[in-house]
Amino acid sequence: MTSAKVDKGQDGRPAATDAVTSGEGYQRALGARQIQMIAIGGAIGTGLFLGAGKAIAKAGPSLILAYAIAGLVIFFIMRALGELLMYRPVSGSFSEYAREFVGPFAGFVTGWTYWLFWVVTGITEVTAAAQYMTYWFDIAQWVSALIFTVILYGVNLISVKLFGELEFWFSMVKVTAIVGMILICAGILTLGFSDAGDTASVTHLWSDGGFFPHGISGTLMTLQIVMFAFLAVELVGVTAGESKDPKTVLPKAINTVPWRIAVFYVGALIMILSVVPWTEFEPGISPFVAAFQKMGLGIGAGIVNFVVLTAALSSCNSGMYSTGRMLRDLALNGQGPQFFTKLTKSGTPLVGTTFSAALMLVGVWINYQWPGDAFTYVVSFATISGMWAWIMILVCQIRYRFLADRGVLAQSTFRAPGAPYTSIFALAFIGMVIVMMAVDKDARISLYCAPLWALILGVSYLVLKARNPENKAFAKS
Question: Which residues are 403's β-sheet partners?
Fold first, then answer.
């Protein structure tokens, strides 16, 4: 505990602090430059680089509209998170807020579900990376998945400062690649060079079967893939406990969401689908790699494949970072094994990270058993588990705003515009996505797994509560 002045939250915990967050023990080593790039890079990963290929086949050019609308919802979610973070910036924020504004069981479910989300996402990312490796080498997917999992585990046994620096450069590679892709496509459209120069035209956005070639229903069926692409934008909330100046850095990072989505998703897709007709893209193949191949720029395709490989590994690296911290937050609150609380001298939750990395090895088995369908299976489950964190963020923000407007809690310095109505709209949109997942036979498997996971959590919570009846973590504030 530092000597810095702090305010108290609804549950008696610090409401905000400019020093090290009370009782966490982490090092505030992430600077503004690193947080900004983690926030930008977190939204650029497998969902865009690989998942967009399947989504283009399902929705055609209307996928652009799906990303734009979903991006607006993501902005509402991030502003809701920002309001909560400026009320009380803590590592493991989602479960902390759920614990405070909904109840101890909600905090327990949110913490463990977000941990599971990153474990599954890690599997997704190494699956994508393994698929990218087949572009150059005739190697079994499970072999690549195993190698990458082991390497990234080793990378995570570092200080948070070095983690932030690595993620900064990983994200810089992704951002540079997409901006370069946009500029090349713009050059092809205006100057007509490359094999695609004679046919490139913005008319491809509506002339090849129309803007909605498979109807509105085809577009709606891609929402699961679209929302998966945006999963991890909330990672800035996990970094709150290790940011040097959260009150300044986090709002700036959150406010970059609109232009990130406009450039990296909407802008990139408009350019790619203008240069190469949507009918020429195939599911399971990165549209970025395919676009360069269609342009006749073979070297460019290889470079992009390296970039998307880096993007997948970067996302998995972030996942390992998050899982260890979520497990430690749960353990500190008595809702997880106490050995997860241990930190190394460099401030790394080694035990939690090791446990999570070991579970990510399940991805190796999935790639061995179902190399062709592995990505679809893990994406659907990652989406439903990741969206739970968004649901809790929105519910907690609505509850917080209710209390703050009545003077029960101090007002946040970063209020979400239009809330609580924007938060309610975002909740309704997420509900629609879940309904679409129930309709989609490929995504439905995740909804079958959700009740089983809920049962496991419910039983575990009751067991822990029975063993620790005096623990305040199980008493509603």
Answer: none
For residue 160, which of 10, 30, 301 has the smallest C-alpha distance?
30
Task: Provide the token pair at 435.
Answer: 């309904």
Q: Which residues contact 36 (CB under 8 A, 6 or more apart)?
A: 249, 252, 253, 256
* Phi, psi dihedral angles at 30 (to 5 degrees): -90, 115
Helix ranges, 255-373 (H) = 257-261, 268-275, 287-295, 298-332, 350-360, 362-369
Q: Please tell me the distance from the alpha carbon of residue 217 to that of residue 169, in angstroms, as a whole number.
A: 39
Which ranges of 88-211 would DSSP assign to H, the alpha helix? 93-101, 104-133, 141-155, 160-191, 204-207
Count of helices and strands (H, E) across the chain:
22, 2
For the entire predicted model, the pTM comes to 0.84
pLDDT tens digits, one per residue of 172-184: 888 888 888 899 9
Residue owning tokens 């790619």: 272
| Distance separating alpha carbons of residues 190 and 180, to the nearest angstrom | 15
pLDDT-based confidence at 314, cuts 50/70/90? confident
For residue 12, the model assigns a pLDDT of 46
pLDDT at 298: 67
CB 169 within 8 A of CB 310: no
Chain centroid to Cα 385, Å, comes to 11
Total residue count of the chain as it appears in this document: 477
- Three-state DSSP at 8 gives strand
Q: Which amino acid is at 300?
A: G
H or E element, residue 468 = none
Which residues touch 88 (CB under 8 Å, ≥6 apart)?
Answer: 9, 13, 14, 15, 16, 96, 97
> How many Å apart are CA 103 and CA 93, to the nearest integer?
14
Reported as a single tens digit per residue, the pLDDT across 34-76 is: 666 666 666 676 667 767 888 898 899 999 999 999 999 999 9
Which two three-digit tokens encode residue 141? 């997917």
Q: DSSP 3-state assignment of 16?
A: strand
- Annotate 207-265 with three-state secondary structure: HCCCCCCCHHHHHHCCHHHHHHHHCCCCHHHHHHHHECCHHHHHHHHHCCHHHHHHHHH
CA angle at 316 for the pair 310 and 321, rounded to the nearest 5°:
125
**What is the average pLDDT value for the chain, to the nearest integer?**
80
Closest to 353 measured CA to CA, from 113, 169, 155, 96:
155
